[in-house]
């Protein structure tokens, strides 16, 4: 299945206006979130993994005790694509703001 093309910097900036919990640019989207406990953070990773598998698009996840640091980028396209925006929206539905 063909992958969506890389978005322009302006398109990413416009998309970030609708994703207030995320920062970044055309090179990648970033979000950090602190969960109540280590177990909650691990459970969040499992929930994100389920969505990532469903979309066949996988984030970079860094777990530091109870804080998740997430990075979304379509490596194959060299930047942010619509898949990254979709995954960001799905992650926002799973995690507290």
Automatic annotation (TrEMBL):
One of its GO terms (molecular function) is 4-alpha-hydroxytetrahydrobiopterin dehydratase activity. It is an enzyme of class 4 (lyase). Its EC number is 4.2.1.96. It comes from Blastococcus goldschmidtiae. Belongs to the pterin-4-alpha-carbinolamine dehydratase family. It comes from the Bacteria. This is Putative pterin-4-alpha-carbinolamine dehydratase. NCBIfam families: PRK00823.1-2. InterPro entries: PCD_sf, Pterin_deHydtase. Pfam families: Pterin_4a. It catalyses: (4aS,6R)-4a-hydroxy-L-erythro-5,6,7,8-tetrahydrobiopterin = (6R)-L-erythro-6,7-dihydrobiopterin + H2O. The lineage of its organism: Bacteria, Bacillati, Actinomycetota, Actinomycetes, Geodermatophilales. Keywords: Lyase. SUPFAM superfamilies: PCD-like.
